[in-house]
Amino acid sequence: MTKASALRLAGLIALPTFAGLAPSPALADEAICVDCISVRVGPPKVVRGPFPDELDATFSAIRLEDGSYRGFTANGATYAVEGASISDMGGSRRAVLEVGEPGSINDCGSWLTSTVRTAETLVGFVHQERACDYGVGRTDKSMAIATSNDNGLTWTNLGTVIAGTDQPLPDQITGEGDCSLVDGHDGFLYAYCLRNTDWQTIVARTPAQYPTDWRKFHEGGWTEPGLGGAATDIGFVGTGAGYLEEQDWVAAVATDPWFGGLRLSLSDNKISFVDLDEPLVPIDGADWNRPAPTDLSVYASILDPETGGSTVGNRFVLSYVLVPAGKGFESRYLVHRDVTLAVEATPPPAQAGIALSRWHEPETGRYISTTAPLTGAESAYQFDAIVAYALTRAPDDMLSVKLTECSGSRSGPLIAMEGKCASLGRAEGRTVGWLLEEQQAGFVPVYLCRADATASYLASANADCEGLGTMETRLGYGLAQ
Q: 242 pairs with which residues across the strands?
């Protein structure tokens, strides 16, 4: 059984404790005008998969001297994959970190979760597990530091640097792990980790020139040792973290089913976080017990499209692992989306928009319009256009309509207003997003059009359907950009 299965078991026990665990970050709230932030999430790119034995941790990448990229994906062992861009990661793999010897601290695996370049070397953060029996939900987590002088093909393990105060138990997940490594650009490297005793996020740091000297944040100071020290939680903050260089903020992404999506949190002091009001990507659930009727979107990370690192500008890559609805862990896909973030002078009418994209299959001429990644048979479709940006949750002060996918047709999913799928003889599927009912400044109409030649449907911002079909109805109004 995989580490993902173990986390699923933990989720069945611990997920109910998520509700209400977001911090009340007064410091961050005062310094960050969260209502002034707008984000646009681009079309999904399925860059790797499906795999049964990979994609069990956050994806990380580096840019090589020749301009190509090396990505790292893991499930027990860690693998390197190379491509021409950070999203060209569909190639063959080679193992660069192996499962440890029996009885060792990593005898269940070594997952490379993130990398940071320092002046001397490439530093890697390695999630370790030991004493595992995933069938009963048992494993013990810790984190090690490793360095590489050949861009991640071979690693020198400098030892375990973060471990919890608890000890392995017969049928529980213990320890601290699943961490991301962030250069704070203040002389320190920061780790954002999951503590399994209460499913909270903790933070630790080390001087960048001494990456083995870790101290946990505890009761207002960096006083506790990384190994076995106590830590004050900073709330239910995602462990997929990055550094926004222009704003000097740390950003963290979490899968939060109670919030309704992949949640972005921001901090100006690396400890106190404030959440965006709207998710980056809407989700309908986060069920680790697969197969399930909804998608599973997990292991989110923030990457720079040029360097591959976690220090990013106002345009960055949101990377996450997707298990589609109805599928098990044998069908794991790596998804990338371009994200742009802006700090407006005044609060925008809608904070987050996700691309409602149109896709075309050249061989059949069929169309699909959706905000979701296309996997399986639908992976043959090619990106055509962004029609508009759907809202990622219903607005509080404007009338809106929820769009869902209707499944159950050979021509692919069809977007429709919520509750309309049954009248079309189809089953209602995933959430697409929300459109306004009435025209507002900065919004464009979204029409549903029928491509008569292929009996498929497409979305368009033009009433003439751009000559691709016949307009049937106006669904609502989406963000123009």
A: 251
Tell me the whole-structure pTM to 2 decimals. Answer: 0.93
Structural contact between residues 95 and 79, judged by C-beta atoms closer than 8 angstroms: yes
CATH label, 3-343, candidates 1.10.1520.10, 3.40.50.720, 2.60.120.260, 2.115.10.20: 2.115.10.20
Segment holding 478, helix H or strand E: strand 470-479
How far apart, in whole angstroms, are the C-alpha atoms of residue 461 and residue 481? Answer: 12
CB within 8 A of 470, min separation 6: which ones? 449, 450, 452
- In the chain the first and final C-alpha atoms are separated, in Å, by 44
Identify the CA nearest to 203 among candidates 237, 173, 251: 237
Strand pairing category for 261-267 and 109-117: unpaired
Alpha-carbon span 446 to 432, nearest angstrom: 13
Do 78 and 96 contact (CB within 8 A), yes or no?
A: yes
Long-range contacts of residues 193-198, Cβ cutoff 8 Å, at least 24 apart: 193/143, 193/162, 193/239, 194/141, 194/239, 195/164, 195/231, 195/233, 196/10, 196/14, 196/141, 196/164, 196/166, 196/172, 197/164, 197/166, 198/17, 198/233
Query: CB neighbours of 288 closer than 8 A, spacing ≥ 6?
Result: 4, 5, 7, 8, 9, 11, 12, 296
Asked whether the CA dihedral 26, 30, 36, 41 is positive or negative, the reply is negative
**What b/e sequence results for 180-209 when a residue is b if at least 16 CB atoms lie within 10 Å of its CB, and e otherwise?**
bbbbeeeebbbbbbbbbeebbbbbbbbebe
Which residue pairs from 103-107 have beta carbons closer than 8 angstroms and sit at least 24 positions apart in sequence? 104/130, 105/130, 105/142, 105/144, 105/160, 106/130, 106/144, 107/131, 107/132
**Residue 31 φ/ψ, nearest 5 degrees:** -90, -25
Bridge-based pairing state of the strands 443-451 and 470-479:
antiparallel
Mean pLDDT of each 10-residue bin along the chain, 481 residues long: 38 32 43 94 98 96 97 98 97 97 97 92 97 93 97 97 94 96 97 95 96 97 97 94 97 96 97 96 96 97 97 98 97 98 94 97 94 94 97 95 86 87 89 97 96 90 96 97 83
DSSP 8-state secondary structure symbol assigned to residue 364: T
Supply φ then ψ for residue 207, to 5 degrees. -60, 135
Gyration radius of the chain over CA positions: 22
Cα(160)–Cα(228) distance, integer angstroms: 11
* Structural domain spans, the chain: 3-343, 352-479
Q: Residue 285 burial by CB count (10 A; 0-12/13-18/19+): exposed, middle or buried?
A: middle
